[in-house]
Design goal:
Number of strands: 2
Number of helices: 8
Radius of gyration: 24 Å
Shape: elongated
Low-confidence stretches: 79-88
Oligomer: single chain
Mean pLDDT: 76
Strand order of the largest sheet: 1-2
Length: 169
């Protein structure tokens, strides 16, 4: 390989490592993918060595291979599309919005939702928090975007809008 090829390859390896590190830090799905890959590799090596893997051996996986039971637990956590509690035991952002809308009793703008959530210690990340939260709510059938008092707002799909007299005031 020429020195340019080695330099380019080193740069690509560093970029790969940077992206993998960031994804491992920020994405539960990526961590699960890596754990699945490691476990599959470990199981394939065990099977190739002995011809067969006994169930008891699965519980003695080396540190770098996530045991199958942990993978199943992680998959179970991810499979619930309407969690009431996040993986760290806290209320989900969507559930917080449901609670806020029910407490207010009327549709609320995205900016106001973010302010109300922040006042409760719930932060919305990203460069554009309003777009982030709005996108998140649009993926949940419990919410619907509406015009209310000449503003773009969010409301609960299963509740009727507050009365027309309340909306006019």
């Amino acid at each position: 390989m020429s020195s340019i090829d080695v330099s380019t390859l080193d740069t690509l390896r560093r970029l790969h490592q940077d992206v993998a590190t960031r994804l491992a830090r920020d994405s539960e799905d990526y961590r699960l993918l890596v754990a699945l890959r490691q476990t599959i590799t470990w199981l394939e090596k065990r099977e190739n060595a002995s011809g067969r893997t006994e169930p008891a051996e699965l519980l003695q996986a080396p540190h770098d291979a996530m045991p199958a039971i942990e993978i199943l637990a992680a998959l179970a956590r991810r499979s619930s599309s309407r969690r009431t509690v996040s993986h760290d035991g806290q209320e989900t952002k969507r559930d917080a919005v449901v609670r806020i809308l029910k407490e207010r009793g009327e549709p609320v703008s995205i900016a106001e939702l973010i302010d109300l959530m922040q006042s409760r210690g719930i932060t919305i990340g990203g460069v554009r928090p309003q777009g982030n939260l709005s996108s998140n709510l649009s993926q949940d059938k419990r919410f619907r975007p509406i015009r209310y008092r000449d503003r773009a707002c969010w409301w609960l799909s299963d509740l009727p809008l507050p009365s027309a007299t309340a909306a006019a005031s």
